[in-house]
Amino acid sequence: MADFLFEIGLEEVPARMIAGAQLELEQRVVKMLERERLVRSGAATKSFATPRRLAVRVAGVAERQEDMAEELVGPSVKVAYKDGVATPAALAFAKKAGVDVAGLKTITNAKGEYLAATSVKAGRGAVEVIAAEMAKELAGIYWAKNMYWRAGRPERFVRPVRWMVAMLGAETVPVEFGGYVAGTVTYGHRVLFGDREIELKDPGDYEDALLGGFVIAEVEARRQKIRKALDRVTRAGDPTGSGLLWREDHELVDKLTQLTEWPSVLLGGFEKEYLALPEEVLVTVMRDHQNYFAVEDKDGRLAPHFLAVLNTEADDAGVAVIRHGNERVLRARFNDARFFWEFDQRVPLMDRVALLENVTFQKDLGSYFAKTERVRVLAARWADDAKRLGDAEIDAKVLDEAVTLAKTDLTTELVKEFTELQGEVGGLYARAQGFSVAVADAIYDQYRPTSMEDRIPHTAEGQLLAIADKADTISGMFELGLVPTGSKDPFALRRAANGIVKILAEGKVPLGLWLIARSSADFEAVGETIGAFFAERLEFYLREARGQSYDVVKAVLATGSDDVRDAVARAEAVTEVRSSEDFTAVASAFKRMKNILAQAKEKGIASGATVDRALLTEPTEKALAEKSAELADRVSALRAQKNYSAALEQIATLRPQVDAFFEAVMVMSPDEAVRANRLALLEKVLGDFSGIADFSEIVVSG
Amino acid sequence: MTGSVSEVAKKKRALTFQELLFTLQRFWADRGCVLQQPYDVEVGAGTMSPDTFLRVLGPKPVRIAYAQPSRRPADGRYGENPNRLFRHTQLQVILKPPPVRIQEMYLESLVAIGIDLKEHDIKFEEDNWEWPVGGAWGVGWQVMLDGLEITQFTYFQQCGGMDLDPICGEITYGLERIAGFLQDVDSIYDIVWAVEPDTGRKVTYGEMRLAEEEQFSAYSFDYADVGKLWEHLNLYEAECLGLLSQVKDFGEMDELKLKRFPVLGAYELALKCSHLFNLLDARGAISVTERVGVMARIRALVVGVAKAYAAQREALTSLQTQEVG
C-alpha cells in the first residue's frame, strides 16, 4: 500500500473554473483507482488547487491489482474432440483461456456437455495501470472554455500544461499528457520562487514542500489566510479603534482565493470627495472592476478605503509601491465614473424617454420605448385590479411616472460603462433630478428580485413596475414562441417568472398569477400557456424558497395556483398538521374515497346527486354524514378567515367516523339505491374538505 | 508611507515613452522577432494589422513585433479625460507557434522596462478576446500589475472563421498605460515622451498628441458628415466585394497572376469600412437595429479576405509543388 499523488501544472486557470475542476479531478482519480481495483471504496483522499495547479492525493493504493479468476465456457465436447483427439476448436479455446488442453474441464449445462476452463487474469502493477489510465481521465475533465496549444492540435485543455507530478509512494508514475511525462518535480510561486525545481520525495511531502516554494496548495487554508489578513489589515488601518470593518463578500473571497497562490492583503485609501458619488457606483468599481473589498465605518457607511488581495508578499517598501499603484488605478476609475455622472446630468431622464426609440428591446418586439408604453398600460390596469381585489395602496401617478422613466438609464454613459447597475442608476438619477423618493425607489428596484435570495422591491409601486416589466417580457417572448425548454432559457424567462411569484408571495400586490398571465397576453392560448408556466414556477418557489415537500406542494396546487400567498399559507398549514396521526388517517381515507369513486366511474356506476338521509341505513354512515355536515360549516368559515391550520385540525377530527365507516360499511352494496347514496356521501365529504388541498396527494409513510 | 514611495521612485529614473518602446522592441528583437513598422491604414487594434490578422493564418512560423497606433473614435474625450484616448498605441508581439516559456518571456520583458517583479503584484486574470467581425477569437488573460491592466495576452484559436494550426501567441502591451504607471503620472498627457539630452527639456505626450485628440474627437462626434461617411463605406465595400468576387477564379490563374492578385489590397478596403463603421457609430448614426446588419456586411468583407488569403496561399503552394513534381 502506498499514497498516490498526482499534480498537473498549468498556465493560470480561470478562477471561476478551478473549484469544479478540482472536484472533478479528485472524483475521476478515485473512480479510476476503484475501477482498476487499486483502492477500496471510501479511500481517504485530499485535493488541492491553485491558479497554476490541480492536485489530488489518495491514500492506501495497492501496488498491484489482485489476480482475477474467471470461469470460461468453451465449445461443446462433441465439437471439441473428434475420436478422442482435440480439434482446432478445443485448441483455440485452451489458448484463449491460457491453459493446456489437458487442463480443460468438462461441465454439463442445460445444452449438454461443454468444455470449461478457469482462466486467471494476472493483476497488473499499479504504476503501469495508472500510467495507462490517467491521460483519459485528464482529457475527460469538463472546462467551460477550452483551447488548443500544440501544433497538430493533439489535445484540448483549459490552458497549456507545463508539468506533471505522479508518484506512487516514492516511485514515479510515467503519466503522459499534453507533451509531458509526469515526474517528481513541481514548481513554486512564479515570482517569489521563480523557475527553481521542487523535488518531491514522497506524496505526503506535497503541501509542505510547496509551502517552501511560497504556494499554499490547500484552498481552504488560503481562504482562511485571506480572511484573517482582511481582519488584521483593517484593524491595523484603524489605530483609534473607530470600528472600521471590511464588507463581507463571500464571492469575492472565493474569487481571490482562486487568483492567488501566496495571498496577502493591503489597505489603500481614496480621497473623501469621491464619497459624493453614489455608493453603488463606488462599490461596483471596487468589487467588480478591481476585485477590492469595500470598507465601512461603524454605522455601515462607506469609508474612503479599500482592501486589495495580492498574490505576493512584499516588504514595507514593496507594499507602499503596490498600494500607490492600486490607489492610482482606483482614482482614475472613480474619475471616469464622476465624468459619466456629470455628463449624464446634461440630458434629464424625461428627455431620454424619446431616445428609447433607438434602443432595441428585441427585434420583433420593438424598442424600449414601445416596451415602456406596453408596461404603462399593464401597470395601470393591474393597479386598478389590485385596488379592486384588496386594499393595496397604490399611487397611480407615482407608478406611471416610474414606469415611464424606468428604462431611460439605458441611454446614459454610466450604464453603458456599468451595465450591472441598470435600474439602480435610473433610480439614483431620478432622485438627483428631483423626482419623488417613491418614483426613484420604484425605478431603482425594477429588476429585483434577481434571484430567490434577493429582496423584492420595497414599495407597492415598485412591485407593480417589476411585475409588469417582467410579465411584458414573458408574454412578448411566449408570443414569439421563444419559450424556455429544458436547460435552454436564453432570455432568463424562468428567473423573471420566479421574480413575479416571489413578489406576489412576499409583497403588497394582491394579484393572481392567472390574472397576470391572461391579462398580459394578446392571445387566449398564450395566456393559458403562461399561466401553466407560472404555476410551475410557483411549484418551484414553494419547494425551493419555502422548503415545502413535493407531495404537499402537489396537494396544495391541485386546488388552485392563482393566489400565491394563499398557496403558501395552505402549504404551511398542511405541513404543520401532516405529522399528526389523525390527519394522516383522514388523508389516507380520502385517498381511499377518491379511488372508490374513480373505480365506480370507470365501471359506469352512477352515484346519487345528493345524499338522501332516508337511505342511510348503517349507524356508521349516519354518523359520518352527521359529523361531516356539522364540520363542513365550521371548516368553510375557518377557510374564509384563511385560518387553515384550524380548518385542518377540524378535518382531522373526522377520523373516528371515517375509520368506523370503512370498518363497517361496504360502499359497493348490491342494492343500487344504497350504493348510489353511499357514493354521493363520499363525494360530498371529499368536496367539502378538499378546498385547502387535495389530501389524496399526501404521501403517507409506513 | 508616501515618503517611501518617492524614495523608491527616486532610486531609478523611469523610462520615457519612447525609451519604453525602444526597450520592448529591443527585448523582442533579441528573442527573434522581426520589427515591423506600424501599419498605415486606420485600425482599431494591433490585431487588425495584416501582420497579425493575415500572418496568423496557415502553417508558416512567425515572430514579429510592431507598435500600432489604434483608433477608436467612440473612446475620444476631446482630450479632457486623463485616462481615455481616441488613439492609443499598442505594442503587438506575435509568436507562432508560441514558445513554451512565453509567459516567462513576457515577465522578463517587464523586468527589462524597469519593473522589479518582487516589488509588485502581478496576476494573470482570465480575459478571452474576440473580434466577431473578423471571425477571430482566442483565450487568455489580462495581465494586472498592481491593479492596472497593462497587457492583453491571447492564445489565438480562430481567425477569419478558420481554425489555426499551429496557434499563435499574441501579447498586446498598452504603452500609454505602462508609461503612465512607470512615470507615476495621473494624466496620460503628462507622460514624458522624450527628454532632449542637451537641454534636459521634457517633451510630453500632451505636447505631441493633445491637439490630435481634441480635433479628432470633435470630428468623430460633431463634424463628420454622416451622408458622406455612408457613401465612403458603400464605395469601399463595393470595391472590396469586386475584388473578392474574383477569388472563385483562383483555380484558372497562372502563378504570376495568382501571386499578384491583390488580396492585401482587398484587406485594406475592408479595414477602411471597419473604420468608417466606427466613425458612424461614434457619430450616433447607426441605430441598434441597423447595427447588426452593418456589422454583418463588414464581417463578410473581413472574413472573405481571410478566406481568400488562405485560398491564395494554398493555390500557390499547390502550383509550386506541381512544378517541383
From TrEMBL, chain A:
InterPro entries in the cross-refs: DALR_anticod-bd (IPR008909), Gly-tRNA-synth_bsu (IPR015944), Gly-tRNA-synth_heterodimer (IPR006194)
UniProt GO BP: arginyl-tRNA aminoacylation; glycyl-tRNA aminoacylation
Keyword Cell membrane: no
EC number: 6.1.1.14
Location of the protein in the cell: Cytoplasm
Cellular component GO terms held in the UniProt record: cytosol
Main location: cytoplasm
SMART domains: DALR_1
Top class in the EC scheme: ligase
Gene Ontology MF terms in the entry: arginine-tRNA ligase activity; ATP binding; glycine-tRNA ligase activity
Domain DALR anticodon binding residue range list: 592-698
Pfam families per UniProt: DALR_1, tRNA_synt_2f
Catalysis performed (reactions): tRNA(Gly) + glycine + ATP = glycyl-tRNA(Gly) + AMP + diphosphate
UniProt entry tagged with the keyword Nucleotide-binding: yes
Keywords, ordered alphabetically: Aminoacyl-tRNA synthetase, ATP-binding, Cytoplasm, Ligase, Nucleotide-binding, Protein biosynthesis
Family: Belongs to the class-II aminoacyl-tRNA synthetase family.
Complexes and interactors: Tetramer of two alpha and two beta subunits.
Protein's name according to its UniProt entry: Glycine--tRNA ligase beta subunit
Gene name, Swiss-Prot/TrEMBL: glyS
UniProtKB/TrEMBL annotation, chain B:
A Pfam family per the record: tRNA-synt_2e
Name of the molecule in the record: Glycine--tRNA ligase alpha subunit
Catalytic activity, as annotated: tRNA(Gly) + glycine + ATP = glycyl-tRNA(Gly) + AMP + diphosphate
Any one GO cellular component localisation term in the record: cytosol
InterPro entries given in the database record: aa-tRNA-synth_II/BPL/LPL (IPR045864), Gly-tRNA-synth_heterodimer (IPR006194), Gly-tRNA_ligase_asu (IPR002310)
Keywords in alphabetical order: Aminoacyl-tRNA synthetase, ATP-binding, Cytoplasm, Ligase, Nucleotide-binding, Protein biosynthesis
Lineage: Bacteria, Pseudomonadati, Acidobacteriota, Terriglobia, Terriglobales
GO molecular function: ATP binding; glycine-tRNA ligase activity
Name of the gene encoding the protein in the UniProt record: glyQ
